[in-house]
Write a structure and sequence with these properties.
The complex is a heterodimer.
Chain A lengths: L7 E12 L2 E7 L11 E6 L3 E5 L11 E6 L3 H7 L6 E8 L5 H4 L3 E7 L3 H13 L6 E8 L11 H5 L4 E7 L9 E2 L16 E6 L2 H13 L7 E4 L15 E2 L2 E2 H4 L2 E3 H4 L8
Parallel strand pairs in A: 7-8, 7-11, 8-9, 9-10, 11-12
Antiparallel strand pairs in A: 1-2, 1-6, 2-5, 3-4, 3-6, 12-15, 13-14
Chain B lengths: L1 E4 H11 L5 E4 L8 E4 L28 E7 L13 E3 L3 H14 L7 H9 L1 E5 L25 E6 L2 E6 L2 H10 L4 E2 L2 H21 L9 H6 L6 H5 L8 H5 L6 E7 L4 E7 L20 H20 L9 H5 L6 H20 L1
Helix pairs in contact in B: 1-4
The structure holds flavin-adenine dinucleotide (FAD) and iron/sulfur cluster.
């Protein structure tokens, strides 16, 4: 009997090394898997199990799907050993995804940290696809060091798009880095975003999300203008295994991108 | 409503057991269990109605503690050992608990295939409680110690006769096919059942008479989301997790994959929100790292978010968690303490 836990067997077409700790899998599902920006997949590494990842490719590209993965533990280490031609499993997409219609006509401040730029790239790709619908896309991105900057090969292309700007910083510089040094929150200090017509979106490690959110609030964003990727541990992806709740919300089903106004009153919102 | 004699009931079970394996309650030892009776092995001595609910929650037949839920790569016509069961003797609190789990596993956006199939195919022959178990508090949760719905057949023993109530079409079919010699029950028998039911209900009420809730548990919990009280109320908890495992409504699980000879199996195991590893993430962050937060989460889930999401509290008063707790934590007391402090707060606010 086919159950809701059955993974769809999917071929790895290519493996791109993004940074020493981040790789992108280019996958060719047997049938297209339509998804909305921000929705995520459960990826099976054969024999190792499943973990949640948000596609980093464009929702408008359905023949292949890219997933960008930081080596963080048992399963993701196995991901990093995958080679083109290997098989993996997919379930999904799960979650709500970003409310793109709400973003229309707005300025968007998109703030990423580390591998957090991967899920955001699906959003960026969706925004870039219809750039005339959005007033501005301002991207702020921080990584630990220059080697860890994800998708570096694409920054120039992004910056050249009309209405798109990108600023990058690293926690600590090395060698020939002449860009900014400091936490990503520093990039938010003198943003010229028009707060009365903007949304702020962020994805990254939970500790970063916390400080980015505090910064958003201190520069004048209201809670309901903030969307956070709450990437808690998940097992089923469908709101039934129980573990990823914040208050009455299941982050897998109701998120993972949550409006901060909905979750701010819960004491465990940042772990 | 039908009546049947003991002998005819036994004959019926024998025939019924030629089509279904049984799980039937035991009635000795106070620690009532379900015992398994394979097809065609019925003997009269197996027949027993536990006076109260079993130790094992009914959910375990629908959502097993360890269960294979998928295998990959997919092979053609994978073997499937699903077997419809007849479960004889569960009580009202467990039937209601299944309805609570249905909200998540059967009625949500992603119905769980295994659970739904078991719900459709297993036969439930429930029975009335014969007395109040030491820890029972169904009446406090506004349930009754006797099934009123959600069974296929319900059996009530009155002296040496049995009253059979039909709760579903399937139940009627089973009655017609396997149980010969039923007669319409006379009013006197139905009245006798009412009397017994009332007696047990009063017993449960009596032993819980010191617990009074003046407002919704949801309200009491909402007022304590950010409070230190949880550390205090949960301070004897040793994180064994038994309360969640034997709870008839708890339903959290974890998936993991195992290699087999030529393929992999995906296994689902019961998990517990009391375990720190339950939500531990890569990088080491654990939301609800403190036991007090996990303790709070259990109550929050049962009495607050479940109400928000599904309009019902996830507790039917079976009392298993109280009976099983090594830390002597009593759910009724926790709810009472929460409420007391809310009342106290409100009074202080008034002053
Ligand atoms: C909605 C969502 C989207 C995500 N998107 C990405 C992404 O695009 N790129 C990326 O690199 N990472 C992403 N993550 C985080 C990624 O899922 C974890 O890094 C990964 O599960 C770690 O697994 P591990 O076995 O290597 O780590 P271990 O620490 O060995 O974890 C063991 C098991 O715990 C679970 N687990 C541990 N940490 C997490 C976690 N943070 N989230 C969920 N389950 C966890 C997994 O089931 C995992 O198999 C996302 C997480 C969520 C919830
Ligand atoms: S049964 Fe008691 S000791 Fe065990 S986890 Fe539950 S509350 Fe804690």
């Amino acid at each position: 009997m086919e159950t809701i836990f059955q993974p769809l067997e999917t071929k790895v077409l290519d493996v791109i090394t993004e940074t020493p700790t981040i790789k992108t899998l280019v996958l060719k599902p047997p049938e297209p898997i339509p998804f909305r920006a921000g929705q995520f997949m459960q990826l099976t590494v054969y024999g190792e199990g499943e973990a949640p990842f948000t596609p980093s490719s464009s929702p408008f590209e359905t023949e292949t799907m890219e997933i960008t993965i930081l080596k963080a533990g048992r399963l993701t280490e196995a991901v990093h050993r995958l080679k083109p031609g290997d098989m993996v499993g997919l379930r999904g997409p799960f979650g709500k995804g970003y409310p793109l219609h709400k973003f229309e006509g707005k300025e968007l401040l998109v703030v990423g940290g580390g591998v957090g730029l991967a899920p955001l790239r699906a959003l960026l790709n969706a925004l870039f696809h219809d750039l005339d619908k959005f007033k501005r896309v301002s991207i702020k991105y921080g990584a630990r060091n220059p080697d860890e900057l994800c998708f570096r090969r694409q920054y120039q292309q992004w910056q050249q798009l009309p209405g798109v700007d990108l600023e990058v910083t690293v926690d600590s510089a090395n060698g020939n880095w002449d860009g900014k040094v400091g936490l990503v929150t520093n990039l938010l200090d003198d943003t010229d975003i028009h707060l009365d017509n903007a949304f702020a979106v962020s994805c990254g490690p939970e500790i970063m999300l916390k400080f980015v959110t505090l910064k958003f609030l201190s520069i004048g964003f209201k809670a309901d203008q903030i969307y956070l990727s709450m990437n808690r541990k998940m097992s089923c992806g469908m709101g039934i295994c129980g573990r990823c709740n914040i208050g009455p919300y299941y982050l897998c089903k109701d998120g993972p991108d949550m409006n901060f106004a909905d979750i701010q009153q819960y004491p465990d919102v940042f772990g | 409503m039908f009546q049947i004699s003991r002998q005819k009931l036994m004959d019926g079970f024998k025939r019924f057991n030629s089509a279904y394996p049984f799980y039937i309650t035991t009635a000795q030892d106070e620690n009532y269990q379900f015992q398994y009776i394979p097809i065609n092995s019925w003997e009269e001595t197996f027949f027993a109605i536990s006076p109260i609910r079993t130790a094992q929650p009914l959910k375990s037949f629908f959502y097993q503690p360890v269960q294979k839920v998928a295998e990959y790569p997919k092979t053609n016509g994978t073997e499937d050992d699903f077997q419809p069961l007849a479960i004889i003797g569960p009580k009202a609190c467990d039937l209601q608990a299944l309805k609570i789990i249905d909200k998540v596993y059967a009625e949500g956006e992603y119905p769980d295939t295994n659970y739904v199939r078991a719900r459709k195919n297993h036969i439930i022959i429930s029975t009335d409680c014969l007395n109040a178990g030491k820890y029972c508090f169904c009446t406090l949760m506004n349930y009754q110690p006797y099934p009123e719905s959600d069974f296929d057949l319900n059996l009530s023993q009155i002296d040496d006769r049995f009253l059979i109530e039909v709760g579903s079409e399937k139940g009627q079919e089973i009655l017609d096919t396997f149980f010969k010699g039923t007669r319409k029950a006379p009013d006197s028998l139905v009245k006798a059942r009412e009397k017994l039911r009332k007696k047990v209900t009063e017993q449960v009420k009596k032993q819980n008479e010191n617990f009074h809730y003046y407002q919704s548990h949801q309200n009491a919990i909402e007022r304590h989301l950010d409070s230190e009280i949880w550390a205090d109320l949960g301070k004897t908890c040793v994180e064994c997790g038994i309360c969640t495992q034997i709870c008839p409504t708890c339903h959290c699980f974890l998936l993991y994959d195992l290699p087999r000879e030529d393929r992999y199996e995906r296994i689902r195991v019961w998990d517990s929100c009391f375990f720190a590893g339950y939500s531990r993430m890569a990088g080491g962050l654990t939301p609800r790292l403190k036991l007090a937060d996990r303790f709070k989460n259990r109550f929050y889930h049962k009495f607050d978010s479940y109400v928000t999401n599904f309009g019902v509290e996830a507790c039917t008063g079976c009392g298993r968690c109280i009976e099983g707790c090594m830390g002597n934590i009593d759910l009724r007391v926790v709810l009472t303490e929460l409420e007391k402090r809310v009342v106290l707060k409100e009074n202080l606010d008034l002053i």
